[in-house]
Amino acid sequence: MNLSSALTKYYENEHLRRRGENKPKQTQFQTQRLSKLFLPFTFLCPIYNLTMQNWKIQNLLNWITQHFEQKRIDSPRLSAELLLSHVLAMERIELYTQFDKPVTKEQLHSLHDLVKRAGQHEPIRYLIGKTKFYSLELNVTPDCMIPRPETELLTERAIEFLRTRTGTQFVCDLCTGCACIAIAIAKNFPDARIIATDICDAALGIAAKNVEKHQLKERITLLCGDLFDPIMPQLDVNKFDLIVCNPPYVSAAEFEKLDKNIKDHEPKLALFAGDDGLDIYRRICEKVHQFLKPNAALILEIGFAQGPAVKELLERTGIFAEIKIEKDFHNNDRIVTAIIRMSF
Ligand SMILES: C[S@@+](CC[C@H](N)C(=O)[O-])C[C@H]1O[C@@H](n2cnc3c(N)ncnc32)[C@H](O)[C@@H]1O
Questions:
Q1: What integer is the mean pLDDT of 142-152?
Q2: What distances in angstroms separate CA 288 from CA 38, 160, 171, 246, one per listed residue?
């Protein structure tokens, strides 16, 4: 069976299963009664389930998905696919082309531990040690924040801005974390030379692995320190064509309300930015004029309610000719692009 027919068959079955149309009425009734009795037992006894039964990929995938639904884990099917493909060392798509493949005891053992931890709200990307950003695979650990899809929009705007220009472009990525933005820019704009900074040495350790993995050591320099501080001594490059930054921007009140998987597992240093969440923007605005060339751009990610406040901070610097706020795919303010005046 080829890939597309395997997928079609799976989705047809899934569609019928949801509508309860692929079983005779009596069998369906019996199954429902049985599963009502059996399901609480299966969720209470994950060890029994993951070690005692003869599991194949298909029923394992379904069982983990149901377990995650019960535990209210985000995107239960995707999470189950990510864990399973990680443990079986397969691409996600291969789970569907090898539905009937049995899973070994050793694999079940590793899976059991990961499923249990995921059920306790450990982020799936930390459990598997990697994530995708801008179609690139990156390593992540609890030392760095997991890159979010919203940040891909910032990255896209950065690449678009660079493509309007010619020659080598000097880019600064403040608060780089695992270096997702810097790496995506470098991969998509070969004339970019990037300095990426972060105050957290451990996060920069992950960034260094990612830069190496994507063979970008010649074009991305990682520096440890507070915002612009580590750039000052770099006398050869201290004015940039573009500065990008996805800083911490969670306020004190928002921090308390964060989901358990974020609050208990992602670094507070990557999230929290003072009472109103604006601390880092204020500090960027104080110094940014020293680091931008005429006609250069500053592109920032912001919290959904921070548009007006960040715009005002940028206006007060008096150096920007144009400040634009853009919404993300949830219709929230998310990206600010500020273009500097020709002379200032
Ligand atoms: C929201 S995360 C962004 C990480 C990555 N750029 C991304 O988009 O996923 C913010 C990062 O800022 C770093 N950070 C926090 N305060 C900083 C400061 N004062 N100077 C430099 N980096 C800082 C944190 O260590 C964290 O890696």
A1: 98
A2: 61, 21, 13, 15
Ligand 1 binding residues, C-beta < 6 A: 144-145, 147, 151, 175-177, 180-181, 197-200, 203, 226-227, 246-248, 269-270
Q: How many separate domains does the chain show?
A: 2
| Residue owning the nearest CA to atom 13 of ligand 1 | 175
pLDDT in tens, 97-118: 999 999 999 999 999 999 999 9
What's the token pair of residue 78?
């995707």
pLDDT tens sequence across 271-322: 999 999 999 999 999 999 999 999 999 999 999 999 999 999 999 999 999 9
Answer with the one of 68, 99, 120 that is the final residue of a domain: 120
| C-alpha–C-alpha distance, residues 144 and 333, integer Å | 24
DSSP letters, 273-305, are -STTS-HHHHHHHHHGGGTEEEEEEEEEE--TT
Atom of ligand 1 nearest to the CA of 146: 9
Q: Are residues 311 and 222 in the same domain?
A: yes
| Position 18, amino acid | R
Distance in Å, CA 81 to ligand 1 centroid? 29
Cα of 109 vs centre of ligand 1, distance in Å, is: 36
- 297 shares a domain with 153: yes
**Model pTM above 0.70:** yes
pLDDT (tens digit, 9 = 90+) per residue, 6-60?
Answer: 333 433 343 333 333 333 333 343 334 334 444 444 444 554 555 556 789 999 9
Classify residue 125: in a domain, yes or no.
Answer: no
Q: Last residue of a domain, which of 87, 120, 153?
A: 120
What's the domain range around 19? 3-120
Residues 30 and 75 in one domain: yes
| Residues 13 and 159 occupy one common structural domain | no
